[in-house]
Fold this sequence. Notes:
Elements: E1 2-5, H1 11-14, H2 22-44, H3 59-72, E2 75-79, H4 86-95, E3 113-117, H5 122-131, E4 137-142, H6 149-166, E5 174-178, H7 184-192, E6 195-198, H8 212-221, H9 225-239, H10 248-261, E7 266-271, H11 277-291, E8 293-295, E9 301-304, E10 307-310, H12 321-326, E11 331-338, H13 363-380, E12 385-390, H14 395-409
Parallel strand pairs: 2-3, 2-4, 4-5, 5-6, 7-10, 7-11, 11-12
Antiparallel strand pairs: 1-12, 8-9
Helix pairs in contact: 2-10, 3-8, 4-8, 4-11, 9-14, 10-14, 11-14
Amino acid sequence: MLKLDYSYLMAEVVGDRCGVTETELAAAAADVSRIHGELMFSHQEGGLPFYDLPFQKDLDALLELADDIAGRCDDLVVLGIGGSALGTSAVARALLPLSHNLLGPQARGGRPRLFVLDNVDPAGINALLDLLDPARTCFCVVSKSGTTVETMSQFLIARDWVEKACGESFRDHFVLVTDPERGVLRRLAREEGYRSAEIPAGVGGRFSVFSAVGLLPLAAAGVDVRGVLDGAAAISPHLRNDDLFANPAYLNGLIQYLLYGKGVHISVMMPYSDRLALVSDWFRQLWAESLGKSADLSGATVHVGPTPVKALGATDQHSQLQLYMEGPFDKVVTFIVPDKLEQLPIPPPAGVPELAYLGGRCLSELLLAEQRATAIALARSGRPNCTIRLADISAETVGALMFTLEVQTV
């Protein structure tokens, strides 16, 4: 389902300047085992509840609510920002047809179009509302505290827009995803009768994609969210293994840490897939907000944290690769590569002998060959890189990938 190829991170390939040695990995194995024990103890004591999300038991109620939303609207708009939006966008991009919002209702299987409003630029909000019919639009309002200024501003605008058009039934057009007990949105759900879903206590926004934050709007739009959770659950035993070399999350997390100590302070994520492009956006928040710290665990001032950068293959071979190849030795690249891609044959280039080598090939062959060549070229220039290989792009592999990245970050 998921494999980590880290051979181009090793010093024997890329050199000692930015490479990791087997000795360094072996020396850290005991610390990894100790940290694993601390994480598992914390989880047993009620901490790190994101570990439990792939195994949630009450999914039927959430899916019933999602189906109800889908039956009420042609368009579903998520109001949220950061972790309340990025995971939904990433999974939707990966698993819905890339043209989902351009398809007609029948081609969408009766599911609504899905829009994620994650900013408060009035140009974007006005442009979207101008396209929608308030009588056939639902809003999923996502804020754990109920006080996120951007999201609550969006909510007030959307509520006014719908109420003016639909009158007293406007509440039927909203679902509030928020804290199970506290906050403005929870109070509104109780006092004014809005439908609602819960964000589990202790689950932070950037770790919430496997909760109602992501699952509810994704299921309403037609994503196989059971498959996403199944994929995360299937890889979970590997991610709870204290054997460094059997746990891809621990191994890549350790390698990134060791490289940071060698001055490699920029972490580039570069999927070779349009479907996986927004996983990099989601990962940027996960990595930056989790690891950017002014103080260490003892309280000492440190001001540390790797800087995440997103890229897309093969597009950014032509916009960023020059810097990665010849610029400062401060970057590690993580490629995400599906082994199976859609097929699109390249026609024979009649009358153009210079392009004969392309005839009979497929674009998928070209894309994957470019990724391999890029990885080799970086390694030959002494630039560390690794590849996360996916069997395909499916609900299960996307769930496994995102859960692995969450554990890697922890």
